[in-house]
Amino acid sequence: MSFKDIFTNAFLDNGISSNMDTKTIAIRLLVATLIGLYIFVIYKTMTRKTFYEKTFNISLIAMSMITAAIILTIQSNIVLSLGMVGALSIVRFRTAVKEPLDLAFLYWSISAGIICGAGLISIAGILSLLLTAVLFAIQKYPGKKLSMVLVVNCNSGTDDAAIINIVKKNSRYYKIKSKSVTKNSLDLIVEVRIDNDSAVLSELMGVEGVVSANLLSHDGEINA
After folding, report:
1. For residues 37 and 48, what is the distance between their CA atoms, to the nearest angstrom?
2. CA dihedral of 139, 143, 145, 148, whole degrees rounded to 10
3. What residues are paired with 212 via a beta bridge?
4. How far apart are CA 23 and CA 35, in angstroms?
5. What is the rounded distance in angstroms from the CA atom of residue 174 to the CA atom of residue 27?
6. The model scores a pTM over 0.85
7. What pLDDT score does 129 carry?
């Protein structure tokens, strides 16, 4: 018998199956499911999006369970695992993840499934608790005050220099994003960072020709 035959037989003998009973498999899958449900609750609590995507949140639970099942299958048979790697490599996901926080939760769910499937349940639990504490702590941390969008609607012929002077006087930062002029109206959109919103709006409404002044908040960046 050649060295190649010895190596092949040893590889196959060690990779036929592992001594994993039904109880162990059930426990690992159950823990993966519980952690998936935990991620579901945390995501629903932390998400800031205007439209909450329940289907994406539900998929986090399924992702954790499916990943754990795959890891259990790979552990049970090394030869089968090679075939699964080849089969899963042809899968392509076309859905774009737009929110960075969604990507973090998706990776969390997959990692939890891998860890639970490998039997390292304590690591999965500690990771989930520690990550939750970090996410909530960062969310509560008082960051830099976001800029606001000032929209001023005026009649045609209104002195826009007076409006800019008021904005400049009361703002720590301002930048004109858009200026639209028609025969009957003048519209200004300015990105501002101010402390006293009511005072600025009242002063702007005192300018002759100003029809309305609105301040809008936003969570993202404004591009010119």
Report:
1. 19
2. -40
3. 153
4. 18
5. 58
6. no
7. 92
What pLDDT digit, counting tens, does each position of 176-191 carry?
888 888 888 888 888 8
**pLDDT reported for residue 82:** 60
Residue 176, strand partner residues: 190
> What span, in angstroms and rounded, lies between the C-alpha atoms of 204 and 20?
74
Strand ranges of the sheet holding 148-155, from the earlier edge strand across to the other edge:
171-181, 185-194, 148-155, 210-217
8 A C-beta contact, residue 114 and residue 74 = no
Which residues are 188's β-sheet partners?
A: 152, 179
All structural domains of the chain with their residue ranges: 3-140, 148-217
Buried b (16+ CB within 10 A) or exposed e, 7-26: eeeeeeeeeeeeeeeeeebe
Please report the pLDDT score of residue 36 as a whole number.
92
Task: Retrieve residue 180's tokens.
Answer: 């639209």
Distance CA 197, CA 161 (A): 20
CB 149 within 8 A of CB 213: no
Look at domain 148-217 and name its CATH class: alpha beta
Residue 217, both tokens: 């908040």
